[in-house]
Amino acid sequence: MHTSLQREKILFFGASIILITASVLLHVWKLSSIPRGFYVDEASLAYNAYSILETGKDEHGNSFPVFFKCFGNYQDPVMAYSLVPVIYVFGFEKWDLKLPSVIYIAIASVAFFFLLDLYIREKWLSLLGAFLFSILPWTFPLSRTVIGGYMPMLLGMICGWYFLLRTLRDKSILYAIFAGFSWTITMYAHQIGRPMGVIMLACFAFSFYKIIFKRLKFIIMLIILMATCLVPMTLSILHNPEIIFRRISVIGVWSGSEGIIETLLKMAQRYIEYFSPSFLFISGDRNLRHNTGNSGELFLFLLPFLICGIYMTFIHSRRNPYLRFLLLCILTYPAAAILTTDHMHSTRCMNGAICLSLATMIGFKYFWRSNRKSLRIILAVILFFGTAEVCRYFKDYFGSYPERSKFDFNSPLTDSLKLSFMNLKPEEILYVSKSIFPYDPENPLPDDSFKPNYYIYFLLYGRFDPNYYQRTGTFPPERLIPYKGKTANPGLLLVSNMVPAKNADGKVSLIRNPEPIPDNAELLGEVAVNKSWRLSVFRIPGNWNP
After folding, report:
1. Is the pTM of this model over 0.85?
2. Rounded Cα–Cα distance for residues 85 and 87 (Å)
């Protein structure tokens, strides 16, 4: 018996190492090149982390801010401050900048193992569930970016959930402290974590109210700790309410509604959409920064397990507060997302990845433990096709997805800027043509300071001194200026060979860029946008005026 138990422990340890290694490798494989490009929100976080490291202030000169102003909105602090030690140790390579997201999802997946084990009491299935959670289409694409604080938010929710349950079960002050810190991280990590953290805690209180009254001192400790940790956030919001209200005033579902009835109907429509097979299993979020465009938010082979798990959760929820809490979290998971104008927006309901994964593995356990031969056969068939589906997903992610999503991450622009600054000599000026910026019919081209958004790329890739930018809000003219068709000093010219133009019928097409290229310009490199469209970097002479 002892030998058998020891052998099982060795096997479990070996399987854990294999799955953890596989998950980590999938998250770091080609991390510097997939996805291609670097979104403006990522660049903003990275440069502001660099500015904090160098000066203790953000790009606007605010000392150690709680929230970071970003293109008129505000970014949350956890990911920004997580980047500071990474930049200090490793620098600015894109692979390094994405490390915090990878680390957060890795820890979150390990934490999910322990949370899942509280529910299903099957360590082998908990191990499988943790691995599947780490590679879900809902979380995987964003875990390889620096967009927002979604990964630390998930980590905070999972740990908060786990330590809440352990607090009540073990009557532990220490677990109450851990739970308080975890939910605090959730609310600091991302703006969605604030309303959903409150809603999930309300679901917990409703599910465990009888036990809570018996463990009141532990819950009071948790509340005091959270309230104390949230003081900086509260003061920041009271001082500047637009931190909360600016974004929601733009994306609120009530925008454009003619009355409360229309608003409620929109909310109901969105609520149904977030439980639809289309969102969960077929097409998912249409934004290629959030999803590959070729899958739902969950793998399709998980559908029968999810249905079974929700059913099992429902029928046992009346007597089991653990399952009652899970059921309420499932029913409320899109509560924040339905308040916004967008349809099927995966990042605004990412907490659903946790509760739906828990329900899925509860259903999986039912199939696994069943003595019915038919269910065992069905399970084997599902797992066979599931393996094929997972392989197909990653073949697409590492194959076609980088090219398909390159414009969503501004890849041509960022690649051309890296090429330019790599070749720019200390005594040279970079002349930048407005023709290089992506055409957006809803937004004008940036002004001469490259605002409202694209200036952040120049700050990041040019490693411009944060002190100078904080003082002036501009770039040093001896290093970077817009191209106006002439040059005063030698340097580099970044220009596109094509520009968009409207036809007589209002349609947009590409025409050859009429901007003159200086005589004796030396082509240093090009970034292809498509077969005929490219962004070029030239070394050009000074004192040129056609």
Report:
1. yes
2. 5
